[in-house]
TrEMBL record:
Residues 299-672 form the TonB-dependent receptor-like beta-barrel domain. This is TonB-dependent receptor. It is found in: Cell outer membrane. Signal peptide: none annotated. Keywords: Cell outer membrane, Membrane, Receptor, TonB box, Transmembrane, Transmembrane beta strand, Transport.
Length: 703
């Protein structure tokens, strides 16, 4: 959670504690105290445009919270994976699967409930299938990352009931560089895994043509953990090696652009926590049978009331499976402004992906996962009609997914989706109203069995923002969204070694129906700013992996449906102390329960933090303490996770500000006290604790 004060956001950092509502109220009133301090302090940062808002809105205009990472803050925050990059943001954690795979978890939801986009087009990889599969996106090459929560993600798919992450890049130029060329280069080194990483980007153009090339590389060994872990000083098999390159070409005119880009990404990383003892396990009804174990009498496997001792799970050192991934993608993007009467813009986004990864064990390929997919999105923005301005569009996709080999726990499937959407806004005086409507149809066919399931769903969202005083606003949003079950939830059946689960799908699953309320209060200018959001999401027919039995660390997981409720608070208060110093208090908490009062598995615990930031001439810096509480609210067969505190800091020197040749040297340190910490959201938290002390030094230049 190491973020600098220059991060632009419309939503604030979360608050943790036993009473979310009480804590939110305390933060609001605390922000008022001292509002007269530092009257000459710098005021609000310039507004940042949210590309994924659909209407090019400013962050403060959104009816629901949005976080935008860009500029210097993004440079210092970027990590090896998208989940690590965002995990300190309000309401966001990472799924954490060693060093190679970490997907964002938003408000307790992950997998297919969180869309990951590349400039509005869905990234088609295998990361929604399992947390051990990496997201095919390189944070080092991102120019901006936007996180939409809850109903604001509706126009990108009704299934994104947790939210959407939109990664913006420069691989398809949208303008001709003024001096004919522009670019950047970055080098960094991290001590925690002896990580060496680099990225370079260059755009050139003349007349109406612009070209772009970029490349990145990373080589990291097994990462070290905090002191006192019984498994040793580092996590065996947690290495991560990635590389990627992209070439793009655009035609740019006075009214828009049209371009394409070819991108290849490669990754090779280990899968810690592999347990050979479960290879012969199989289910008998609702119970597991593993070798000499009977169907019953699992003893301590059913005792999850006490804290886990977090001993390192047994596996032979050096015998860790390796993922070898390659993703080839063709992107097409375009925009035409003022195409004809009544419309201000037409935008096109499309992607064609050929994805494959092999899981290698003992030098041989054990399982191969393939995903051949396309995604196409067309939207038209119309001029105001009776005061209403909006955008309408069509989105369609097809995904052919297959797994072949020892862990082919899902038969080959073809998933087709088509959606129509409409987003409208109306402004009057100090009010902004927003309404969105979307209808989706999905068919998921299992090729081997010939079973096909179709789901239809209509979703809507209504929201408003009231600027009741200069610099103050309140927002309220209601959404009703329908999510069709993913192919894996419908058709899975088999042993999944990476997560130590035997997964059983259910072809009769219905669509989920989510009813979400978001209430947000913000102050965006003056020496005192705050952002507090409370939400409640009631989901009818929530689909989750219910653990029926556990033996030798293996869980029998069946996809089931029950009604569930997610309730949470996310908040931040910042006080500008003087021209150079600012103090922030932030935190978040989410509670996720089924109707019978039982808890959902792998939910992040509450967090609270304090940060002191400074900006003096060319220097930026921050120091923070983040306290993560223990997670005692666990599902059946899930162990508790102890809490921890982390001390983080960062400092940067920025040269050439305001010139075409800006450069930056930075140092950031995480977990300076080398605290042993575990992630409650991870399937392999005991085999792969979080990284210990890590000091990263880097340099970035723009030209």
């Amino acid at each position: 959670m190491k973020k600098s004060s220059s991060i632009r956001r419309a939503h604030a950092l979360p608050v943790s504690g036993p009473r979310p509502l009480s804590l939110a109220i305390f933060l609001i009133f605390a922000s008022g105290h001292g509002a007269t301090m530092a009257q000459d302090a710098p005021q609000a940062l310039p507004e940042v445009t949210v590309s994924s808002s659909g209407l090019a809105l400013g962050a403060s205009e959104m009816t629901t919270p949005v976080t935008v990472l860009e500029g210097d803050a993004l440079v210092r925050t970027r990590a090896a994976t998208l989940g690590e990059t965002l995990e300190g943001e309000p309401g966001i954690t990472g799924s954490h699967f060693g060093a190679g795979a970490s997907r964002p978890v938003i408000r307790g939801m992950d997998g297919p409930r969180v869309k990951v986009l590349s400039d509005g087009s869905e990234i088609q990889d295998a990361s929604t299938v399992s947390p051990d599969h990496a997201v095919a996106s390189e944070p080092l090459l991102a120019s901006q990352i936007e996180v939409l929560r809850g109903p604001s993600a509706l126009i990108y798919g009704a299934g994104a009931i947790g939210g959407a992450v939109n990664v913006l890049d420069n691989k398809i130029p949208t303008a001709i560089p003024q001096k004919g060329y522009e670019g950047s280069a970055e080098l960094r080194y991290g001590s925690g895994a002896r990580e060496k990483a680099c990225a370079v980007s260059l755009t050139g153009g003349s007349g109406n043509l612009a070209a772009h090339v970029e490349a990145s590389g990373r080589n990291a060994g097994d990462y070290g953990v905090g002191s006192g872990w019984s498994g040793g000083s580092s996590v065996p098999g947690s290495f991560n090696r990635t590389s990627g390159a992209s070439v793009g070409l655009s035609w740019v005119g006075s009214r828009g652009y049209l371009g394409l880009a070819l991108t290849q990404q490669n990754a090779k990383y280990g899968l810690p926590g592999h347990n050979h003892d479960i290879e012969g396990c199989h289910p008998h009804g609702d119970h597991l049978h593993c070798g000499g174990h009977g169907d019953h009498g699992h003893g301590d496997d059913h005792d999850h009331g006490d804290d886990h001792d977090h001993e390192h799970e047994a596996h032979a050192p050096g015998d860790v499976p390796v993922v070898d991934m390659r993703s080839n993608r063709l992107d097409v993007r375009g925009e035409l402004r003022n195409p004809f009467a009544g419309f201000s813009a037409i935008r096109l986004r499309g992607g064609l992906t050929d994805y494959r990864h092999d899981e290698i064990e003992d030098g041989a390929i054990g399982t191969t996962f393939k995903n051949k997919a396309y995604d196409l999105r067309v939207e038209a923005q119309h001029e105001p009609i009776a005061g209403w301005r909006g955008v309408m569009g069509l989105q369609t996709s097809q995904r052919k997914f297959s797994a072949v080999g020892e862990e082919a726990y899902v038969q080959p499937t073809i998933t087709r989706r088509t959606g129509l959407f409409l987003l409208e806004e109306y402004r009057i005086d100090n009010w902004r109203f927003e309404a969105a409507l979307r209808h989706d149809r999905q068919t998921a066919e299992a090729e081997d069995s010939g079973i096909e399931r179709s789901h239809n769903g209509t979703s809507l969202s209504l929201g408003s923002v009231w600027r009741f005083q200069p610099g103050y606003s309140a927002g309220l949003t209601y959404s009703r969204a329908s999510r069709a079950p993913a192919a894996e939830e419908l058709y899975a059946r088999g042993l999944h070694m990476a997560t130590a689960t035997y997964e059983v799908g259910n072809a009769d699953l219905r669509s989920e129906t989510s009813n979400n309320f978001d209430l947000t209060l913000k102050k965006t200018s003056g020496p005192t700013t705050f952002d507090v959001t409370a939400y409640r999401n009631r989901i009818k027919g929530y689909i989750y992996g219910k653990t029926l039995d556990a033996v030798d660390g293996l869980q029998l997981l069946e996809y089931s449906q029950r009604n569930a409720t997610f309730t949470g608070v996310e908040a931040k208060v910042r006080q500008q102390l003087n021209q150079a110093l600012g103090l922030s208090v932030f935190g978040d908490v989410v509670r996720a329960k089924l109707d019978d009062g039982s808890h959902l598995p792998r939910i992040a615990p509450a967090r609270v933090g304090v940060r002191l930031d400074t900006r003096w001439r060319e220097w930026d810096g921050n120091i923070e303490w983040v306290q993560v509480s223990r997670q005692n609210r666990t599902a059946e067969f899930e162990t508790r996770t102890p809490g921890y505190g982390m001390l983080n800091l960062g400092v940067a020197y920025n040269g050439g500000r305001g010139t075409p040749h800006e450069w930056q040297v930075y140092v950031k340190a995480r977990n300076l006290t080398d605290r042993l910490a575990y992630s409650a959201t991870s399937f392999i938290k005991d085999a792969a604790p979080l990284m210990g002390r890590n000091i990263t030094v880097g340099m970035r230049v723009a030209f």
